[in-house]
Amino acid sequence: MAMNQMREPAFDRAVALVLRIGAFSCFFVMLTGLIAGLFVRGYIPLEIERVGVLLMLATPVVRVIVACFLFFWEKDWKYGWISLGVLVILMLGSVSGLGEH
Amino acid sequence: MVTALLVVLGFFAGLLGALTGIGGGVLLTPILALHFGIPIRQAIGTSLVAVITTSAASSSVHLQRHTTDIRLGMTLELATALGAAVMAYLVGYFNRNALEGLFAAFLLYSAITILTKGRKGEPVGDESAHAPNEISIPPYEPKRYPLGLAASLVAGALSGLLGIGGGPIKVPVMYIFMKVPLMVATATSNFMIGVTAAASAIVYYRRGDILVQVAAPLAVGVFVGSLLGARMAPRINTKVVVYLLVGVMFYLAGHLILHLLWGWL
């Protein structure tokens, strides 16, 4: 069976929803931080912006977790394990930078 | 004032990126380094946040059009994420001049490739961004996986090294060598860019090379710009935008080279 005939619309929609929620929530959090910076002095606006940036960094990771879960749910073992491999690389990346901040 | 300027910069980078499919990272890194005086390593880390924003915003649209091959994307992401994370770690050992020189070379290569494609009448960037909502894609079976994985490893390494998406490598390899339809190749590349950039951005963040006060206004501008660009794309003469983009790329490459020479003289 050809690769593109294997795709399920519900799978695409679920992953798209994760990305959309991630992108919009990051946008609003960062925007809140920027607006807060106009009225509030100190570290609070910067911390709000930091939350937005961290949400942005987490969005692709959550997308991989959701895809991994959906592949295993559909008993598509091969791609479930591949997604898990991607997740492990992402996690190792965060560990490799530890202590350098 | 600087924050407002960063929002505007992000907006135009996102707009140009969405109209041409090139992505904003290639413009943001040199502008942050040259015009905002940010060290090149932090400029790369900071622009990666904008790259993830662009990918998240646009690939959700492609997924809803069912032009993204998630299985192919996940497979190649194994290589891009590995290349990006390893190179992001190694970049800490690169000297600033070497990074600026590499970036200038990449800008020149990209600008010349875009010009050559434009003359041959080939689509320059993300053609699926211009497509209608209902699209029929012919059946296909991706071929030459080892070659695709090797090219993805290189694209990931470039992303980790220069803070870019790596699309100019992934799309031609998927289209020409793996026999994936162009529309699927561009959408799948866009889908992969978020994870590729995240793999290196996490390392940059842990090292303190992402400036939150710069990344946040940039990402806000990029988000609005890329959404507007995706809406405007079908109605705009992209040839004019492409020439504008090429002009900016040549200017930034020239500026980086002069900056390097100035440092040596």
Describe this structure in words.
The complex is a heterodimer of chains A (101) and B (265). Helix content of chain A is 80%, strand content 0%. Chain A has helices at residues 9-39, 44-73, 77-96. In chain A, helix 1 runs antiparallel to helix 2. Chain A is elongated. Helices cover 77% and strands 0% of the residues of chain B. With 265 residues, chain B is mainly alpha-helical. Chain B is globular, with a radius of gyration of 17 Å. Chains A and B meet through helix 1, helix 2 and helix 3 of A and helix 3, helix 4, helix 8 and helix 9 of B.
Topology readout:
The complex is a heterodimer of chains A (101) and B (265).
Chain A: H1 9-39, H2 44-73, H3 77-96
Chain B: H1 2-20, H2 25-35, H3 40-64, H4 70-90, H5 96-120, H6 145-162, H7 167-177, H8 182-206, H9 212-232, H10 238-264
What is the structure about, briefly put?
The complex is a heterodimer of chains A (101) and B (265). By secondary structure, chain A is mainly alpha-helical. Helix content of chain A is 80%, strand content 0%.
Catalogue the unreliable spans of chain A: none
Characterize the overall form of chain B: globular
**Biggest interface pair, residues each?**
A-B, 53 and 59 residues
For the biggest sheet of chain B, the summary is:
none
Strand content of chain B: under 5%
Helix content percent band of chain B:
over 70%
Mean pLDDT across all amino acids of chain B: 82
The value of Rg of chain B in angstroms is 17 Å
Number of discrete helical segments of chain A: 3
Broad shape of chain A: elongated
The secondary structure category of chain B is mainly alpha
Number of helices of chain B: 10
> What is the oligomer described by this structure?
heterodimer
Radius of gyration of chain A: 18 Å
Question: Which regions of chain B contain 5 or more consecutive residues with pLDDT less than 50?
Answer: none
Percentage of residues in strands of chain A: under 5%
